[in-house]
Write a sequence for this structure.
């Protein structure tokens, strides 16, 4: 069964450094998402992306965050200048073209900011 | 936002059926009811969804009350692998993002 893959599984970065989290969505999916989950808390929506544009973003997704689909297969989340509070699990998701189809999630990248 | 209410945790014995309840009294006519689960150290995983009629798939069944103000996710024969946090979510029309609540943490006893 096709799946969403994320790399790396764990990223350790110094505060203030830039980090890029990578995702390979399911190949025929066109809608892409990033969510995050701080340890012990709820999964939170960050951003949705379609047709090379951000469709919606949450308040968390400030100017330090950006997303990109640099080629036909990857979908990335960049954090420009990381803060301690950015430490979390980051999940990528994708879905097919029919509205209300389920989103398929990757297993996440654990981001640890030191 | 339409909200759901779920018990914080539940326990069940292995190989027995599990009924996970969800209340959504403010549901609107076009809201779909989705269930996801999150196994330890994994991302959320889609389980099932429905609008008005009961639904079955290989993972579970979804029973929706006639007034749609509540629903129940049914795992027919729980295994240890079903221990997870189960989220009941309303997907509002034209709202693509998923809003996760705290869910129900399901413990399976061997």
């Amino acid at each position: 069964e096709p799946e969403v893959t994320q790399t790396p599984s764990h990223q350790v970065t110094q505060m203030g450094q830039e980090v890029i989290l990578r995702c390979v969505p399911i190949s025929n999916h066109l809608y892409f998402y990033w969510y995050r989950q701080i340890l012990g808390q709820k999964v939170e929506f960050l951003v949705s992306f379609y047709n090379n544009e951000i469709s919606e973003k949450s308040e968390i997704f400030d100017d330090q965050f950006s997303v990109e689909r640099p080629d036909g297969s990857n979908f990335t989340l960049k954090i420009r200048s990381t803060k301690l509070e950015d430490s979390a699990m980051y999940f990528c998701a994708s879905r097919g073209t029919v509205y209300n189809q389920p989103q398929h999630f990757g297993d996440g990248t654990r981001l640890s900011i030191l | 936002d339409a909200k759901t209410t779920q018990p914080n945790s539940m326990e069940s014995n292995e190989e027995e059926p599990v009924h996970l309840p969800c209340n959504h009294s403010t549901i609107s006519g076009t809201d779909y009811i989705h269930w996801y689960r999150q196994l330890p150290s994994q991302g959320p995983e889609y389980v099932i969804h429905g609008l008005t009629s009961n639904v079955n798939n290989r993972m579970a069944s979804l029973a929706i009350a006639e007034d749609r103000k509540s629903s129940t996710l049914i795992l027919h024969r729980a295994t240890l692998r079903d221990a997870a946090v189960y989220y009941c979510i309303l997907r509002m029309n034209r709202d693509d993002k998923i809003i996760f609540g705290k869910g129900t943490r399901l413990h399976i006893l061997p």
